[in-house]
Amino acid sequence: MRILTLFASAFFVLSLFIACSSPVEGVSVLNCKDFDEKINKTDNPQLIDVRTPAEYEGGTVYEANNIDYYSDNFKSEMDKLDKKRAVFVFCAKGGRSASAASVCKELGFNEIYDMEGGYTAWSVYKGK
Description:
This protein is an alpha/beta fold. 48% of the residues lie in helices and 14% in strands.
C-alpha cells in the first residue's frame, strides 16, 4: 500500500511539474539569439522588461519598457499596449515572463514572444 501511495504522489508531482513548465499555446519561447533576431526583423516591436524597477536599472535589453510583473497595475498596463503588434517579454530568468506571456494571451495579444533564460541569459549572450 505504501508503494502505491508513493507512486501516486510521485505521479502527481510529475504531472504538476509538466503542467507548470509547458509553454502556453500561442506563445513562442525563443532563445536569446532568436529573440534578438526576431526583435530586429519586427516592425515597431513592443519590448517589455517585466522585472522590478531596481532590476531594470541594472540594465535591460535595448530600450525595453519596464512594466513590473509584481506591481498591482501590471495587467492594466499591459492592456494599454497595442494587441495587434508583436509583444516581446523577458524577466531575470524566465519565470515571470512566462506568467506575463500568459497574461498577454489572456488579454488578446496575437503575437507573443518570451525570452528563454531572461536577462541573465541575455547578459551571457551579449558578453556583459
